[in-house]
Structures are given as C-alpha cells and as structure tokens.
Amino acid sequence: MRPQILPALNYSQYSEEIINSKHTSQRRRLKAEKAVVDARVQTMVPALTNLQSIAKVGWRTMTSKALKGCYESSTKALGVLKDQILDDLERQGSVNIEKCPYCMLQSPSTWDHYFPQAHYPEFSIYHGNLVYVCSDCNHEKSDHYSEVQLEYLHPYFYGNVATVILFCKAHIRNGKLGFRFYSATADPAFAALAVIGQRHIVNLKLEIAFQSESSTVVSDFLSSIKEDFPQGISAEQLDRLVRKNYRMVESAYGPNAWEARLWHAIVSFAEFHDYVSVQLPLLPVRHRDGIDQIAPAPPN
Ligand SMILES: [Zn+2]
User: Fold this and answer.
1) 75 and 177 belong to one structural domain
2) Distance (Å) from CA 1 to ligand 1 centroid
C-alpha cells in the first residue's frame, strides 16, 4: 500500500484527441455526450478526496459501449496517455513503476480502472481512474465496487502521503512466529481512511500474502545471521540490524509498505531475541546489564 500523487494531465485535451481518433459514428456519439461525461469526470476528485464513492448513472447501451471503446480499442492517443501517466509516476519515484501501489508485493503490469469500466464507462480514460497495478491485484479486484462506500484505497487519494495506516503485530504461537497485518490509526482525522484500508486488505486478500512473504523475509534474515554471526549475536546487535532493515525498507518503499511494517513490528516485539536464540542454538542470549556475557575465547 503506497500513496502516489495524481498525475497532472489535461483531461479535456487528451480526451478530445482520443475521441478524434475514433471512427465517424463513434466520434459523433462521443462528441454529443462529451459535456455530460466531462461534468461526471469533474465529480471524481472531490468525491475521492472526501473518501466517498460515486453513484452510477444509467448510460444508454450504445453510449456505454462507445465510452468503454475509448479504452478497450487501443489508439495512438490512448498509448500516449498511458505513457504520460507512467512518466509522471516515475518522476515521483521509480518505486511507482516497480511496485504495485495496492499491495507493494509484485511489479505492476496492468491498468486497473478504480471505478470499474463495466459500471462507470464514463471514467474509462480518465487518468484519475487509471491505477498501474500488478495482475494479481487487478484480477482480485475485478469489477468489485460499491456505490455506498469505497472498497479499496486509491493511491492518489490518501490525503496526507505520510500518514501511516498499515500496521503489523508479531506473536508467537506454539513456538511459531506469526504476524497480523491490519489497517488502523490512532488519529481520528484518518479513521475513515483506515476503515477503507482494512476493506482493501480483506478484498484483495493481502493479509495471507503479507504473512507468507513475511515468513520468507524472516527466515532469510535468520540464515544471514547464522552466516554473519557464527559465534552468536547480542541483543544489541540484533536490535541494530532490525532497525537498520526497517529504515532501509521504509525509505525505499514508504511507511505503508508491508515490509516496512513487518520490520517495525519486529523492532517492538520484545520476544524476538528469545525467538531467534531458539532458532539458532549457538546464540548466547546476552542481557543488557552485561553481567552474564559469555567470555570470548582467549588469544592463541
Ligand atoms: Zn498488487
């Protein structure tokens, strides 16, 4: 989960170009409806800024088909629009085209219509409705939507991009380290955003994906400790490494990336060192007062 900034593009200009690239009958139909469509597009930013969904309108079948056709049949003008969105996102940070903003797990490769085309054909080419995501998220989201409430976080509408709404808590059950991921906030100003965040996690089945990736990250981390600290690692060294990993991931992917939250959870998980010492039998647990530190081998 990662916020992005709505690309600064001129809708009335590119929509005109896309319409002009259509065959005569389609073009005529689209031009006749353009003022109504443009007015609808203008409602999207205020609604999403207030974290509200938008009610559908009943388009005539032929109009709906023509509107969807603006996106579905590829034209040079549509290709230019997609390139412009990607250029803008990349200028904001290369991470935007390397990681899907919905999950921060996979590489993006497809365009999601935040409001599905099947129900909101008038937004089919509006750049505020186009989100560059991974195929898993796009497939999972499909045509799911609600006219009453937002079902997913839209990366362009987080409000404050520094707001942390994804959290992770570590636990040990039956000797196994596990993690729970959820969206929440202690700040009432972001309560509505966190509620949508939780729907987002559930709808996209992200928790299972985050948990399974977390197991891999932790087991790789333990292997690297075994290799780098064959004589054992102190609580302080372990703490330093965990904090370093958190800072690295947080600065690369932002505070709402699952991996940043994972390290954040480990930083504040008091039993982590004990857990590690069970996993790595060589590891002496050293307490902070230093009294029971194990003496290193004497020099030869
Ligand atoms: Zn994704």
Assistant:
1) no
2) 9
Of 107, 141, 175, the one marking the end of a domain is 141
Centre of ligand 1 from the C-alpha of residue 280, in Å: 34
CA 74 to ligand 1 centroid distance, Å: 24
Q: Are 200 and 155 in contact (CB under 8 A)?
A: no
pLDDT band at 295 (very low <50, low <70, confident <90, very high): low
In a domain, residue 219? The reply is: yes
**81/191 Cα distance (integer angstroms):** 34
Distance in Å, CA 83 to ligand 1 centroid: 20
Measured distance CA(121)–CA(125) in Å, rounded: 9
Question: How many angstroms is it from 206 CA to the middle of ligand 1?
Answer: 9
Q: What is the pLDDT of residues 115-162, one digit of tens each?
A: 999 999 999 999 999 999 999 999 999 999 999 999 999 999 987 767
CA distances from 283 to 44, 223, 275 (A): 56, 13, 11
Dist. CA 33 → ligand 1 center (Å): 34
* CA 100 – ligand 1 centroid, Å: 5
Question: For residue 232, what are the domain limits?
Answer: 166-279
pLDDT at 187 over 60: yes
Count structural domains, the chain: 2
149 inside domain: no
pTM of the complete model = 0.90
In a domain, 119, yes or no: yes
The predicted structure's pLDDT at residue 21: 92
What is the residue-averaged pLDDT of the chain? 92
177 CA distance to ligand 1 centroid (A)?
Answer: 25
Helix (H) or strand (E) holding 225: helix 206-228
Which residues are close to ligand 1, an ion, with C-beta < 5 A? 100, 102-103, 134, 137
